[in-house]
Amino acid sequence: MKFIQSLTVLLFAFLIPVQGILIAVGAAIAIHTVTGIYKSVRLRQSFISRRFADVILKMFVYELVILMLFSIDYFLLSEFFCLWFSVNYFFTKACAMVLIFTEMVSIKENIEQAHGINILKQLREALKRTKDLKDYVFDLTKNS
User: Fold this and answer.
1) In 19-118, where does DSSP find H-type helix?
2) Contact between residue 28 and residue 54 where contact means Cβ atoms under 8 Å apart
3) Per residue in 32-47, is it b (16+ CB within 10 Å) or e — as a string?
4) pLDDT 10s digit of each residue in the chain, 144 long?
């Protein structure tokens, strides 16, 4: 029993550098799930418990991928990437960013479908209005 406890503590100590990445990926999956449920409720679509099993499987696979990439990065790639990029665990962080970006795109799509809007189009219009407002303020200060 003491050996198993020591092994568990050793494993957790090894994974401390990647715990924030694991939490970020898990949070992205959780937010995607919540927005998917929100979209289903808003559009009056049914959702089934099988989809929740898929979410659990997805969470398990994504987290396992991060752990495996961290091991590869730690033992094989870390020295090379530190020389080129001066960032520890670069490969693990880059792959985590890809996973999180994928989830963010899905979150955006869920929100757009739930409300029937195009977020990027509205963002462009808001930026254009900001530019117009800046030009207006500049003209006011120039004429004063």
Assistant:
1) 19-42, 49-72, 78-85, 90-115
2) no
3) bbebbeebbeeeeeee
4) 888 999 999 888 888 999 999 999 999 999 999 999 999 999 988 877 777 788 999 999 999 999 999 999 988 887 777 777 778 888 899 999 999 999 999 999 999 999 999 988 988 888 888 887 887 787 777 776
Other CB atoms within 10 A of residue 127 CB = 10
**How far from the centroid of its chain's Cα atoms is residue 64's Cα?**
15
Rg of the chain (C-alpha set):
22
Q: Please give the Cα distance from 54 to 60 (Å, whole number).
A: 10
Q: How many angstroms separate the CA atoms of 119 and 128, rounded?
A: 14
Helix (H, G, I), strand (E, B) or coil at 117: coil
Structure tokens, 127: 């930026």
- Give φ, ψ of 135 to 5 degrees: -60, -40
Q: What angle do CA 116, 27, 112 make, to 5 degrees?
A: 5
Q: Which residues contact 32 (CB under 8 A, 6 or more apart)?
A: 103, 106, 107, 110
